[in-house]
Amino acid sequence: MPVRFLLVVAGAALIGGFGLAAPAAAQVLVQPDPAGAYAMTSGRLWSLVAALLGLAGAVIGGLALARPASRLGIGTGRGGAMMALAAGLAGAVVGGLVVAAAEGGPGTGYGIVGGYLALAVGLIAMALGGLALTRVRRTG
């Protein structure tokens, strides 16, 4: 079964699943806390988790591009690239949910700045993973 087919099916399933669950998840993800400007609210926490997922994917994708597959500790050449794609997708999706659920701008505790950051870093991680995956296919 081709990898492109698997990626398309997985992406469609994620979009469909999150599309149906987005309104319910948006209410749960972002609950502002009037504690203050420096308090860790749930929106800020979720955007931090999403940004860290995207950052991990970007690091793994960079390593997959820079080093051979055996240096990543994975037997096949696609492992690092697929991990970067998955982590980047997860970071971008969670960041997108945080942004979609935010009812206020920066500084309100909804985590909108971190959500946008997570979206950007997640997309970069997916791009690095995609580049590493095409390089592995070309050489292998």
From TrEMBL:
<protein>
    <recommendedName>
        <fullName>Integral membrane protein</fullName>
    </recommendedName>
</protein>
<keyword id="KW-0472">Membrane</keyword>
<dbReference type="InterPro" id="IPR045770">
    <property type="entry name" value="DUF6223"/>
</dbReference>
<feature type="transmembrane region" description="Helical">
    <location>
        <begin position="108"/>
        <end position="133"/>
    </location>
</feature>
<dbReference type="Pfam" id="PF19733">
    <property type="entry name" value="DUF6223"/>
</dbReference>
<keyword id="KW-0732">Signal</keyword>
<feature type="transmembrane region" description="Helical">
    <location>
        <begin position="79"/>
        <end position="102"/>
    </location>
</feature>
<feature type="transmembrane region" description="Helical">
    <location>
        <begin position="45"/>
        <end position="67"/>
    </location>
</feature>
<feature type="signal peptide">
    <location>
        <begin position="1"/>
        <end position="21"/>
    </location>
</feature>
<keyword id="KW-0812">Transmembrane</keyword>
<keyword id="KW-1133">Transmembrane helix</keyword>
